[in-house]
Each structure stands twice: as structure tokens, then as C-alpha cells.
Amino acid sequence: MLFLSGLRTGVRTLAERLFLIEVVSFDWNCPKYITPRYTAAEIQELVAPLRQRIAELEAKLKDKA
């Protein structure tokens, strides 16, 4: 950190240690660490009115065509 702080302030300092970290890969959305908030049944229940509304609107479009 001594080296980086010297770059920010313009003061010349010697680095005591330098670490080079090579990231080979990463997975931001690893399901192992994501806690599910809703079950599939709960989602289906919440989405049902939306699906019904979409079906109604699609039916109206077919009637007008």
C-alpha cells in the first residue's frame, strides 16, 4: 500500500512488497452462494395474473386482426 499511496500523493517511496495476483476465472452468479427467496410455486402464483393479462391482450389483438 505504501507504493500506491506514493503514486496518489506524488511522494516517491520504495515498495516493501509487491503482490501480483492473476485471476484465471470467476463466477459472480455462483448458485452455491445465492439464497433463493421464493419457491417455484410462489413465483407461479405471483406470475399467474400477469400471464392471464397477457393472454387477454393477445386475444384482443387477434380479434382486431
Give me a quick take on this structure:
The chain is mostly helical.
What is the share of helical residues?
Answer: 40-55%
Q: What is the overall number of helices?
A: 2
- The overall strand count is 0
Shape: elongated
Features:
elongated, 65 residues, mainly alpha
Task: Describe this entry's structure for a reader.
With 65 residues, the chain is an all-alpha fold. The chain has a domain at 36-65. The chain is built from two helices and no strands. The protein has helices at residues 2-9, 40-64. The protein starts with a helix and ends with a helix. The model has no long low-confidence stretch (mean pLDDT 82).
Question: Topology of this structure?
Answer:
Elements: H1 2-9, H2 40-64
